[in-house]
Amino acid sequence: ILCFLLLISMTGFGQWKDYTIGAKGDTLNRVDMKGKKQGPWAIHVDELRGERGYEEEGYYENDQKTGTWKKFSLEGVKIAEENYSWGKLNGRQQYFTYNGGLLREESWRAMDPKIAYDTISIYDIKDPTKEVDRVVIKNEGISYKHGKWNYYDPREGTIEATEFYVMNKLRTSDDEFIGDDDLRPIDISKSKADTSTKK
Questions:
Q1: pLDDT in tens, 146-191
Q2: What is the pTM of this model?
């Protein structure tokens, strides 16, 4: 019976290539035999070249972040709470100052990499409950800014600005969309303020 129990305990520990034991005795930062991160993780990043350090905790599934991840300053103040699907930002994200005040809330949409195309709903900017259209888009395997983004005054807790995104395009009050491709650099050679050529 003793040999049988030893064999069971050895196979239990043999499923991980690497892991650490946490303060409460649980196994963290597990890497399976295929080299993929699995289960609960706690990551510590020291301060470096003026960048503040932080600690991050969450869950990995097949080498991809999944579920809720929380980030804390080295002093223990929560500075971020992010949600992941398929290793990409998905859903509501919250970011805080190092004093704990809410700085902004973001909304992201991750795409399942196994699906080539997806259908999304377009909502009326004046009535978010009213669906205006449904659009088929190609899945590029990334996260998109999608939904309402709020920017807060961290001291007062009031909303300073709000933006609406539809698949990475900023929706204006005129119901138009501005994407990164629509933003072009200003051509300074045609500027009216340039009087050096006239002289």
A1: 999 999 999 998 999 999 998 888 988 766 777 655 544 545 454 4
A2: 0.71
pLDDT in tens, 48-73: 999 999 999 999 999 999 999 999 99
How many CB atoms are closer than 10 A to CB 157? 9
Cα–Cα distance for residue pair 60/111, rounded to 1 Å: 18
User: For tokens 């309402």, what's the residue?
Assistant: 148
